[in-house]
Design brief:
By secondary structure, this protein is an alpha/beta fold. It has 20 helices and 18 strands. It folds into 2 domains: 227 residues, Rossmann fold; 217 residues, 3-Layer(bba) Sandwich (FAD/NAD(P)-binding domain), CATH 3.50.50.60. The strands form 4 sheets. A 7-stranded mixed β-sheet has the order 3-2-1-4-18-17-16. The protein has a 6-stranded parallel β-sheet with strand order 6-14-7-8-10-9. It has a 3-stranded antiparallel β-sheet with strand order 11-12-13, with no helix packed on it. Bound molecules: NADP nicotinamide-adenine-dinucleotide phosphate (NAP).
Length: 458
């Protein structure tokens, strides 16, 4: 038997586990999928926006994998802490695949970023997704928000801010977060990109969705679109990748419609381009009152340069949405510049040499890019490297069932029945609130529902 630990139960971890047990070359592979949280699915549960039900429904296929008899889900197990170091984990298993994602947000590095009311989009997403470590948001007194960045996360947080309560009530958003969003007096959200419309990182489907929200008008200034050479020049436009061309068309449509704020408009989304953040502006009590941006111009090489012309956009809430970054795991090498664990075809590299038995997949391997499906080939590559090494790895005798060792170390793993109990508790909670299944957003609630409180399992 080849015992493998996969650390992280998001898409990359689940796809890695699936590839490892479903292949035929190496028989007898058994996988434990460990997660720090008592709930599986990583960013599908705690990152995909609650109103994106179609993407969320992917949990159905992830669940089928985790229910495979050759795979065991062990939640509430933190790897890299004192109870379970990465070195110890490698003693307990023949191989470990780290699929821990990119847990932190990136900073802007501009003055005023520390002001009250300035947050990372990641923190905001975690909060409305019910992540048990998330701090609560208060939107009292927030009339306008600025979202900095032009990726899909920026689009997600812009949409969630602008959406009215009825659409969110139908989701699994935690009840307290729903109450805060539903009760907010927010009227205007500006999503601000430092480069041009053809250089947005959002996908067209997500962008277009902004124009479908009831009671929400989308505004784009044609003069700002025109700053992008691809907007006016048909030859440059023709050379764009298809996705960028489609994005420009969507934006052009909004610019031409003049963002007409009809009677029923409750909120306005304004998409801004060629503005890079220079400083966050503070007001009384150290709270944010706006962001100063510098107008940019294309530098001819895909980037932008500053023009020395500034514009202030008022906001009582600022979300920076400029990407995620990986976090080092104690005991593993780390490329701080890229925020990833160095690897060759998924094999962890220590001082340039492939380490026997240690692998990576997903964002911690390739950086925070791509859609969920990108993790499939990524995990496959890693799994096939591991399987090539299987002969050498399986020679080592293991101390016994790792689950016993985890318990002996004081850990209280939440196994699959515990997770199913959380699901039942969330469905019950939803029913009691007159909603569908609603997430439990705190540790005691999750562990209590899992029936895995502080006492050791007998
Ligand atoms: P992202 O796609 O990398 O976008 C980051 C954005 O931040 C870019 O517009 C970037 O502009 C901007 N930026 C970076 N540094 C900046 C700075 N100092 N000042 C101003 N702007 C700055 O990251 P993301 O939105 O966090 O998404 C991460 C990944 O998750 C992506 O692969 C995304 O597609 C995926 N995702 C997908 C979905 C979905 O499919 N529905 C939803 C959420 C996330 P530049 O381009 O100029 O660098």
């Amino acid at each position: 038997m080849l015992r493998v630990a996969v650390v992280g139960s998001g898409p990359s971890g689940v796809y890695a586990a699936q590839t490892l047990v479903q292949q035929r070359e190496v028989p007898g592979v058994r996988v434990d999928v460990l997660d720090r949280l008592p709930a599986p699915y990583g960013l599908v549960r705690y990152g995909v926006a609650p109103d994106h039900e179609k993407i969320k429904s992917l949990t159905g296929s992830l669940r089928a994998v985790l229910e495979d008899e050759r795979i065991r889900f062990l939640g509430n197990v933190e790897v890299g802490g004192p109870a379970l170091t990465t070195e110890r984990l490698l003693e307990l298993y023949h191989a470990v695949v780290y699929c821990v994602g990119a847990a932190r947000d990136r900073l802007l590095g501009i003055p005023g970023e520390e002001l009250a009311g300035v947050h990372s989009a990641t923190a905001f997403v975690s909060w409305y997704s019910g992540h048990p470590d998330a701090a609560a948001f208060e939107l009292g007194g927030v009339r306008s928000a600025v979202v900095i960045g032009a990726g899909n996360v920026a689009v997600d947080v812009t949409r969630i801010l602008a959406r009215g309560a009825p659409a969110l009530t139908a989701t699994d958003m935690p009840h307290p977060a729903l109450g805060v969003l539903a009760g907010s007096g927010l009227r205007a959200v500006s999503m601000v990109a430092r480069r041009g419309p053809s250089q947005g990182r959002f996908t067209t489907k997500e962008l277009r969705e902004l124009g479908t929200l009831p009671g929400v008008a989308v505004r784009v200034d044609p003069a700002e679109l025109a700053l992008d050479p691809a907007y006016l020049d048909p030859d440059t436009a023709a050379a764009l990748p298809a996705a960028a061309r489609r994005n420009v068309e969507v934006l052009r449509g909004w610019a031409e419609a003049d963002g007409g704020a009809a009677e029923e408009t409750q909120r306005i989304i304004t998409l801004r381009f060629h503005l890079r953040p220079a400083m966050v502006l503070g007001g009384p009590g150290g709270r944010v009152v706006g962001v100063r941006f510098e107008r940019t111009t294309p530098d001819g090489a895909g980037g932008v340069s500053g023009t020395g012309v500034y514009e202030d956009i008022p906001a009582e809430l600022v979300l920076r949405s400029v990407g995620y970054r990986g976090v080092p795991l104690p005991g593993l090498p780390f490329d701080a510049a890229r925020g990833t664990i160095p690897h060759a075809a998924g094999r962890v590299l220590r001082a340039g040499r492939a380490s026997v038995g240690e692998y990576v997949a997903g964002w911690i391997k390739r950086g925070p890019t791509g859609v969920i499906g990108t993790n499939r080939p990524c995990a496959k590559e890693t799994a096939s490297s591991l399987l090539q090494d299987a002969g050498a790895l399986a020679r080592r005798e293991l101390p016994g069932d790792p689950l016993d060792a985890l318990r002996a170390a004081g850990l209280r793993p939440v196994e699959w029945p515990g997770w199913l109990a959380i699901e039942v508790a969330e469905a019950d909670l939803g029913r009691s609130l007159g909603r569908r299944s609603v997430k439990i957003p705190d540790w005691p609630g999750l562990l209590g529902a899992a029936g895995s409180p502080s006492s050791p399992t007998p």
